[in-house]
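BUG: 3D viewer hangs when loading the predicted structure for this chain

Environment: internal workstation, default settings.
Expected: structure renders.
Actual: progress bar stalls at 90%.

Input used:
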Amino acid sequence: MRPLIERYRNRLPVDDSTPIVSLGEGSTPLLPAPRLSKRLGADVFVKWEGANPTGSFKDRGMTVAISKALEQGAGGVICASTGNTAASAAAYAARAGLQAVVVSPAGAVASAKLAQAGALGARVVEVRGSFDQALDAARALADRGTHVLVNSLNPNRLEGQKTAAFEIVEELGGAPDALALPYGGGGNLSSYARGFSEAGAGTPRYIAAQAVERETTVASAIRIAKPAHSSEVEEAVRTSGGAVVSLSDDEILEAWRDLALYEGILCEPSSAAGLAALASAGIAPGTRVVCVVTGHGLKDPETAARLSPQPVVVDPDPDEISEAAA
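Structure tokens produced before the viewer hung:
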């Protein structure tokens, strides 16, 4: 598989002097969702970003951000994270031979994500505060010049993430009628808007799916009170005739179950928010819509285990097994 940067080199801020740091990101599946399409009365596709190397869409931007940091002679990188950025930054920094520092809000991140970042060599620091406070601290440290910030405030991150829009256009032969995706910090929607604009193949209606209770939602990956890219999201939604849809945790978890039970896609809860938003976004029958599913379910196995039926224990007897499975 060609590295993402090589595949879209002429559309990214790189040149021959840029060292490419890649783990095989991008080229993720665009899966038709026939059973959900029938239920919703729309032509639904799933952009399965959980298939990226560290299990989330963050890898698209991180390959560019870390490559550019290495090109600039950085000694290390730093990020604030609700989990997925942490794992991605840690992996790509390790690949590049750079130190990674992760600043996370204490008790607000799925433990599997912190374990993933730690196992990849990142120095994980939990702060007594919110994600926004963690980000402020990370930015302040980056301003001292010792580390490069690799959150979505780094423009190279957004440049890498826009490539998902290019892939969708290549697969569908144009932009979908609508694009629905989770809305945490807003960087991903901003990136898709940039990508579709550069592709010149039409603009989808953007549906940004956020949690009603941003600071406490079960969808921990979008547990961000103050979206850093809110103005860009508002502009993209307004000009495309889209919508920002606020969802309860129950609505998000219902969509999470539907993706698993009807299409065999196990994602983390936040990743199902785009699908959950379709019910109240005014999608007309027959609309071709892409739901961006941003992270793998094994990012948050504790929630999956808590919400799934427990195993039934029986003797190794065919009749007992058959009865238990009925």
